[in-house]
Amino acid sequence: MAEKDPITGVETTGHVWDDTLQEFNNPLPRWWLWAFYGTVIFAIIYWTIYPSWPMGKSYLKGVGNTITYKTDAGEEVTTHWNTRALLQYEMQNGEAALAQKAELAKIASASYEDIAKDADMQAFVQSFGKGIFGDYCAACHQTGGVGVIGSYPNLTDDAWLWGGEAADIENTIKNGHIGNMPAHKGVLSEAEITQLGNYVLSLSKEPSDAALAAKGKVLFEGKGSCFACHTKEATGMKALGSANLTDQIWTIADVKGQKSAEAELAAVKSVISNGVKRQMPAWKSRLDETQIKVLVAYISSFSSK
Amino acid sequence: MLKHESIETNTGLLIILTLVAIGIGGLVEIVPLFYIDGTVEEVKTADGKDAVRPYTPLELRGRDIYIREGCYTCHSQMIRPFRDEALRYGHYSLAAESQYDHPFQWGSMRRGPDLARVGKKYSNGWHVKHLTRPRSVVPTSIMPNYPWLMEHDLSYGDVKERMLALKQVGVPYSLTQVEFDANVEKFGKEVAEKLDISKADENLMAQAKSMNTDGDSNRITEMEALVAYLQVLGTMVDFKQHDEHDFIKFR
Asked: In CATH, what is the architecture of A135-300?
């Protein structure tokens, strides 16, 4: 050590590589050195205040740094600092958490009419509802509730399979539904399904063959037993979730998306042939009463009624 | 006394001593967790059994596919104890919930949402659509399509070996009657049956048949395995049965 570079006069480490290559031993900049000592001191203070070193089966829990929270049973507990207790404390005392809790309590005790009329509650529904709708519902019903034709119903079109009153929507979210239209392939002949297809198209004033549609009407009200679920007037039944076929709103067969009359007929025939099987999950075990209430109010605000 | 210069000029020694230095850093952080009481929380069901169980054979194969497809590169399985995460994903993850995961799938990258509690959130049918073509149900999704999951038959000839390997590292799959009885005691009879290595094939087939997400009951596809795995994530602990204090006291 303490060897000096002959040209610059700077102290070197004394290590020599490849005959002449040497390393200067310049002192560390003073500011850097003190910053380093600073971090060491910070670490020691940090160890003292926060949980740190393991000690046998336990660990140093931190000095003078406790959190007091309430258990769900209402008991007060004081514990050393830890993120779980901190979360519980924040959920019980945090400004945002309390503000949200107050809004939710207001919603819980209000009627749907009041929620719709009250600007403050409606604003809360629009923001909180958007969050939970986005997380739990939009995966199927899509952002804004527009649905996917053929799979997931549109919630914005005022055509409700299972009823659109607040109580109906609440029931749907809580208990779910199983939608089932039997397949008619094999039960009815291809010709009969074509007749029915024409009749169904005629109900919504889509282009159809009048003669075939007339035969389809007889099948609809007789052999095909379509009327059993869709009613003789083809307006559907809320209790069964059967679709209104006269409202020009298509939820399974994408009639409006077809370019020709033939394709429209094929789309309708495919539904009659293959039936429909789909399921809306029940949410009552995953979402609490008030969350469901917010969702109902949020979804109700989609439609124009 | 080892001289500075002799380490710097001897690559082999330098590598070994570097590894030792890093090793100390790692061991100091990891080892205490093996013996500190309460690292893994004790979570019981109402009838006193362990709430968290190892995966069934089908779920286990699904988990392998999850790893094979690299799902973990975009999805974490770790809900942190923050209010915003609790509001979005649900209760924070417990150590107990990944105690049988080897390796765990906590992850740190969230290009997609956290999946720690995705189980039972969406229907099987939705998962099939979504995995095959995510944009068919989430138009803004950036997730790639995984159409081959539906096309590939699940290979499960080695599922017993996979369970045996996990048993070696401490996952309580049972091989002998004594181990089976211990599982009945720990998890209850119904779960113990599913953890029996000798019945792995039948259990796997029965579960796949009961799900039948691909619409063909004679086939077992990779899709069924992956959906079975996704649908169990985060569902084993019923948080409504517990006081928050039950989990905080372990920290």
From this structure: Orthogonal Bundle (1.10)
